[in-house]
Amino acid sequence: MRDLEILTLNNNNISRIPVTSFNHMPKIRTLRLHTNFLHCDCHLAWLSDWLRQRRTIGQFTFCVTPGNMRGQLVVNVQKKDFVCSGQRQAAHCSASSITCPSACTCSNNVVDCRGRGLTEIPANLPEDIWEIRLEQNFIKAIPPGAFSQYKRLKRIDISKNQISDIAPDAFKGLKSLNSLVLYGNKITEIPLGLFDDLVSLQLLLLNANKINCLRVNTFQGLHNLNLLSLYDNKLQTISKGLFAPLRSIETLHLAQNPFVCDCHLKWLADYLKNNPIETSGARCSNPRRLANKRIGQIKSHKFRCSEQYLINTVEEQCFMDLVCPEKCRCEGTIVDCSNQKLSRLPSYLPEYTTDLRLNDNDISVLEATGLFKKLSKLRKINLTNNKIKEIREGTFDGASGVQELILTQNQLESVHGRMFRGLTGLKTLMLRNNLISCISNDTFAGLSSVRLLSLYDNHISTLTPGAFNTLVSLSTINLLSNPFNCNCHLAWLGKWLMRKRVVSGNPRCQKPFFLKDIPIQDVDAKDFTCDSNDESSCLLSPPCPAQCTCMDSVVRCSNKGLKILPKGIPKDVTELGSSVSIPKLTLFEVAEATPVALHCSDILLFTCSRTLHGNDISSVPEGSFNDLVSLSHLALGTNPLHCDCSLRWLSEWVKAGYKEPGIARCSGPDSMVDRLLLTTPTHHFQCKGPVDINIVSKCNPCLSGPCKNNGTCNNDPVEFYRCTCPSSFKGRDCSMPINACIQNPCQNGGTCHLTETNKDEFSCSCPLGYEGERCEVNPDDCEDNDCENNSTCVDGINNYVCLCLPNYTGELCDEVINHCVPELNPCQHESKCLSLARGFRCECLPGYSGKHCETDDDDCVGHKCRHGAVCVDAVNGYTCVCPQGFSGLFCENPPPMVLLQTSPCDNYECQNGAQCIVVHNEPVCRCLAGFAGQKCEKLITVNFVGKDSYVELPSAKIRPQANISLQVTTDKDNGILLYKGDNDPLALELYQGHVRLIYDTVNSPPTTVYSVETVNDGQFHSVELVMLNQTLNLVVDKGTPRSLGKLLKQPSVNLNTPLYIGGMMPNGFHGCIHDVRINNELQDFKDLPQQSLGVLPGCKSCNICKHGICRSLEKTSVICECHPGWTGPLCDQEIGDPCLNNKCLHGKCTATNFAYTCKCTEGYSGMYCDKKNNSSNPCRILKCNHGQCKFSERGEPYCECDPNYSGEHCDRACLPELRGDPVEVIHKEQGYTSCVTTSKVPRMECHGTCSNGQCCVPLRSKRRKYIFQCADGSSFMEELERHVECGCSKCL
Predict the structure, then answer these.
(1) E strand or H helix at 791, and its extent?
(2) How far is CA 646 from CA 611, 649, 682, 696, in A?
């Protein structure tokens, strides 16, 4: 402190000042000591002399004790007046000579232990102390309750120590503490609740530590805190709401922290803008576009998230995990490694992973690497769509927290309990789409928590009894799409499915044939028989040696400390893995410990045993071991062997003498991957197509072209290969230029400079807008753009351009365009322009529409002119030009004595709310749903919706030979469809979606038959019951009849009891019954007596549209939407070719819109080419297309045209023609809302020319009602007129 100039000690409790206190402060010029408790005895006499020598410092320093000195300035007291009573003592600071620690000084309730080399906080301090100073020691921890007994403490300073551990209750009970100084330590985390009791705290210094995360409730309760310093820590983010409890905060220090300014820190920028209390200049460290920018000055929208930084809080525990596995994507606690062509599990996963996604990869074996032992938070593993054939024992050790394991779409052929060891908390296990053929009773051992198990689409035909006994929590199991053989081996499953309350999806039998497609749980126990059907996919496993583990034909005894081969190895073993110590074995080791890995095995000269394990060998030339006459053991494991035809000799060689222990596996080609060299049949080693150059080049490296820049490659026995380089390059592979700048490595116009010290090195001077070692990077200038109003930033070179939305302009899109200024006003026809926040709006005058009021509305669309009047459009209105004799605004008044046309529906009464329409001038009733008949007088469809709904058909005519048919639709599994009388034995019901027929008499056992078909899919199904010659047959959907067989006697049914449709609860019926017929007689529900509640007519459908779909418009109105090729109100009129049934006799029919014309062959004429021309007749050369040739008074031929045709050759017609599209939607304004027709309307107009001064006008029109749907939700119906016949008539 030799450079200290200003020292402020006023307003403290100082009573003594040792004589050497200021000796090391030669430059001090300001000293404040006033307002202390100085004891002016002989020990303070030096201070009076010291202050007199420095008159400008220490002013207003007064004595407080002893009493005779109180209030005197220390600088004015004479030296003789500074007296000590009693024996002279050495001057020292002491609070209590009894309890003050020997390493500290105590005075006026202050304990001073600064710089005393302490390693722990001293105990047994005076209980009434106010302040303790422990800075500049070597304290590493603050133990529980370290200060709790000192209730009067106001200040604690433990700065500049080595504290890394603080007990959560270290400061418990210190309600008077107002200053806590902890800066300059090694604190990484603040324990939960550390500051909860410090309700009076005003100053908290945590700067210069290593804090990397703060819980959101770290500062709860610190309502009086004025200053908080977190300066110089390791904080990358701060939880939103961290500072919310700090109601009195005035100063905040956050600088020198590596903040990641992503979306999680946006709140802090907003907080600092609203509360400018951060005075240290906190800045961003990442991302690069925001680096070194002050947080409080960055716009909120620039705080965006990316996947590079993952900073989270899990269950109020702080952690940061910035390392994501290679080829994976990490977001929060989700690690997504899907679709990355991985062949094995990642070697590392973040500790707080909860969801691991490994689907769509090439993993074939799940190895026991201990990966999951540290992942206590892991809950879900997805391994869908891999190539998994094997799961090694112990793979899932430590994964007790995993709740969902998905192994769908893999190649597992067998599963056993050891595969799933460690998954004690598993709740969902998905094994869909595998090759599993058997489930044994130990397959799911240890999985007591599994609730959902899916074995859908495997090869399972048999399940070992008790296979699911260990799944005590099972609630759902999917066994569908498996080829179950329902013989005696599977009888237990039927009972188990009926006894257990689990959702199973009703798995079905595939064998034997007579049980095919029948649900297993519906099969009678006596039908599970093994007579001539004893097949089982679950065979007893051979014994396995006690020291080993066995899987299929593979026995593994590795790492068991064996000295000899174990006893009891199965006879059909194909692979034996062991680590047996055989004494006196001579072994030349070239395994992983060898510094140089082998790539190509050539000539070997070793004697007894050869270990090539763990190298890079893909091929072994034939005859490589010919000289090794004593070779008895060869280890080729963990090599990428390429097992094509060139390695066939090696397969035969190891099979001949079993010299390879069955460890070596093939790595290629694809068809040989993971096959064992020892056990794979020799004929599988085939050459198909070219071999990968990387494999061939292992024995001939020059094939891979290792020499760059036109270098020449030569094989070299020592260095593997040697390159002869051209003059401009050097290096082992000729990749290094002689002159680093010779190839101009600087891109984008950069200038290359050689370094002075090494010509092999260079640097690039980049033009503006580029950076990088070779000027290859064009930084995204849009990362820090100022484009406003949601405009799009387009990156350029050292700049960017803002693409504005339509309503904005300016370089930064910050100027709003006023479209309504006179020079930009887009509104037409004197409409009013209104400027909006996002554009403009034109208020149109009546009669105009469109975005710019540019359209003069055709008010004749949907006009009300009647009797063929012509509509003339006007602005916001129209005028009707009436035919002769008609009058009125809409020409609605006919001429006198003219009878008005009446409709055929006027005197035709449709029943039950049906609508009458005219079809071919005949009235037709459009029935509501459920009704039928010429006048909709019959009710043939009813909907059962009540709890106890049924229909009674009294005195049903059931004869000994009878037929009952009906159609049913329902989505329920169970219910009563039909039963005959209260005491009769006949019933037809739903049972688990099937139709069940029951015939139950008093004197004989009940007889039952089920339909194979299910009818609970919500679609209509036909059900037919036939009683004939002592038989009862059930037919569903016209399928194969299901018969009860020949009964002992003719079914006895009472002719006088009623027939019930539906029934009472609990077996009532919910659904629709349609078209009930008894002996082919349609039953009318309308004429029945009062039915039960909950029986409604119809089934929300109608059947009047012959070739179309029925659409409901209102509660009582429907409309038909016709299929292509059909038209008419009921879709019963076919849109045919006009030329069909044409009358052209000697000519070709040509279609024109909805009419046709005849093009006559030479020698014929007339409208239908029915008149033969006379060769001498002058009319032969005059062609009258639609008329006859006549002679004038002068004898000259001319054409007399047929009606509606004119012109010299009668070729100009007055015909109805389409206007625009054949059909279109009609728009109409209704009040203040816009309405359109719900169907398209044909638009026809009369076009053509007429002679004799006549005009082409409509002669016949049709009117039809159309529904208009409005934007405000309302609708209305209005008649529209279309022309169907045009002709020449008097001009209107």
Answers:
(1) none
(2) 21, 7, 11, 11
> Could you tell me if residue 1131 is left (phi over 0), alpha (psi between -120 and 50 degrees) or otherwise beta?
left
CATH of the domain at 1077: 2.60.120.200
Q: Which residues contact 1172 (CB under 8 A, 6 or more apart)?
A: 1146, 1163, 1164
Half-sphere exposure of 457 (CA within 13 A, CB side): 9
Q: Residue 764: inside a domain, yes or no?
A: no
What's the longest Cα–Cα distance across the chain? 171
CB 685 within 8 A of CB 655: no
Q: Is residue 317 part of a domain?
A: yes
First to last CA, the chain: 116
Q: Is 1086 found in the same domain as 950?
A: yes
Contact 1076, 941 (CB under 8 A): no
pLDDT higher at 749 or 615? 749
Alpha-carbon gap, residue 1211 to 1201, rounded angstroms = 9
Q: Cβ distance 392 to 414 under 8 Å?
A: no
Looking at this protein, which amino acid is placed at residue 619?
S
**Lowest-confidence pick of 219-223, 351-355, 803-807, 1281-1285:** 1281-1285
CA 74 to chain centre: 80
The CATH code of the domain that includes 828 is 2.10.25.10
The secondary structure of 795-842 as a DSSP string is E-SS-EEEE--TTEESTTS-EE--TTSTTT----TTPEEEEETTEEEE
**Structure tokens belonging to residue 1111:** 């659409």
Residue 1174 is classified by DSSP as P
Q: What is the pLDDT of residues 358-378, one digit of tens each?
A: 999 999 999 988 888 888 889
pLDDT (mean) for 919-932: 83
891 and 966 belong to one structural domain: no
Residues 690 and 666 in one domain: yes
358: its two tokens? 């490994």
Distance, in Å, from the CA atom of 231 to the CA atom of 216, rounded to the nearest integer, reads 18
Whether residues 1155 and 1189 share a domain: the answer is yes
List, in sequence order, every residue forming a beta bridge with 609; answer none if it has no partner. Answer: 587, 633
Band of residue 132 on the pLDDT scale cut at 50, 70, 90: very high
> Which strand (E) or helix (H) includes residue 491?
helix 491-499
What is the distance between the alpha carbons of residues 1192 and 1172, in angstroms, rounded to a whole number?
A: 20
Where does a domain end: 290, 321, 352?
321
Query: Where do we find the tokens 């939305």?
Result: 805
Paired residues of 998 in beta bridges: 987, 1008
- Choose the final residue of a domain: 640, 664, 699: 699
Distances (CA, A) of 369 to 340, 350, 418, 479, 545: 20, 15, 15, 32, 24
Element spanning 165, H or E: strand 165-166
**Chain centroid to CA 46: how far?**
81
Asked if residue 1120 belongs to a domain, the reply is: yes
Grouping H, G, I as helix, E, B as strand and the rest as coil, residue 522 is: helix
Total domain count for the chain?
A: 10
Q: What is the domain range of residue 569?
A: 549-582
Note whether 974 and 1091 are same-domain residues: yes
> Same domain, yes or no, for 1203 and 1265?
no
What span, in angstroms and rounded, lies between the C-alpha atoms of 936 and 1118? Answer: 14
For the chain, give the number of residues: 1292
Q: How far apart are CA 1240 and CA 48, in angstroms?
A: 111
**Strands (E) located in 712-780:** 712-716, 720-724, 729-730, 736-737, 751-754, 762-765
User: Token digits for 279?
Assistant: 């005075």
609 and 578 belong to one structural domain: no
Does 292 map to a domain?
yes
Based on the number of CB atoms within 10 Å of its own CB, is 890 exposed (0-12), middle (13-18) or buried (19 or more)?
Answer: middle
The pLDDT tens digits for 308-361 are: 344 444 434 454 444 578 788 877 678 899 999 999 998 878 877 889 999 999
- Give exposure, 820-836, as e/b (b: 16+ Cβ within 10 Å): beeeebebbbebebeee
Residues 950 and 1089 in one domain: yes
Strand 365-366 relative to strand 390-391: parallel, antiparallel, unpaired?
Answer: parallel
